[in-house]
Amino acid sequence: MAAKTIAQKLEQLYKLQTIDTRLDQLRAVRGELPMEVADLEDELIGLTTRLTNFKTEIETFNEQIIANREQIRTSTELIRKYKAQIDNVKNNREFDALNKEVEIQDLTILAAEKKIGEIDRSIKLKEELISEVQTKLDEREKDLENKKTELKEITAETEKEESTIAVEREKAKDSVDEKLIKAYDRIRENFRNGIAVAPILRGACGGCFAKVPPQLQSDIRQSKKIVICEACGRIQIDARMAGIEEHVEEEKAKPKRRAVRKK
């Protein structure tokens, strides 16, 4: 098999570019939906985690309330015991000691009751936050369901056409040199519009519109070597290879002259 000329390589590469552009346009129909779905899924994970953490905190608070109530019960029982002993004291020292124990247990009960009040307020705040997060979670779940349905419908509409173009792309890709494909793919990744092969239009790169020196224009026109745009790095081809007649473009660009009437 004869080696491919530079012109043939460029023609095959531009054919691949046109197929990729069709694929890009087809996928663009989905817009930001895939990203929106992913963002909503991430947000749901975050909201669910917050909800779980709040509920765990409430469980801890309830355990603290139980512990403080148990302390109150214990202190109350000790006060009853100490007061019973006061009736049988034999001297002032024992009386003062028992009264001191009663005071300590009274203070312990007051501290436990205060702690229970603080915990109750904390629980109410957490319950309010849980209600807010749950409401937001329910809203986001509905949004996600709607976005997924919308994405599924759009994907179903374009799936068959996309599959057909993908097969066409594989065939076109097989005809292009592997080394050139790697360079092409690398360049495509650098641009949001995915244009790696750009025609020269009115002496400028069709990708970035930077002016191309006359000598390079001549090289591109003759297709004797692969030329890369000095400004953007795209592969440059002659406009005619892209199916564009340069002289037509030039005529469109020229200002229209008014007809001069003869006297």
Architecture overview:
This protein is mainly α and 263 residues long. The protein is built from six helices and four strands, in the order ααααββαββα. The chain has a four-stranded mixed beta sheet with strand order 2-1-4-3. It starts with 5 loop residues before the first helix and ends in a 10-residue tail after the last helix. Mean pLDDT is 90; it is low at 247-263.
Q: What is the mean pLDDT?
A: 90
Structural class: mainly alpha
Strand order of the largest sheet: 2-1-4-3
Low confidence ranges: 247-263
Helix content bin: over 70%
Tally of discrete structural domains: 2
CATH class placement of the largest domain: Mainly Alpha
Label this structure with key terms.
Helix Hairpins; mainly alpha; rod-shaped; four-stranded mixed β-sheet; about 260 residues; disordered C terminus; 6 helices; about 5% strand
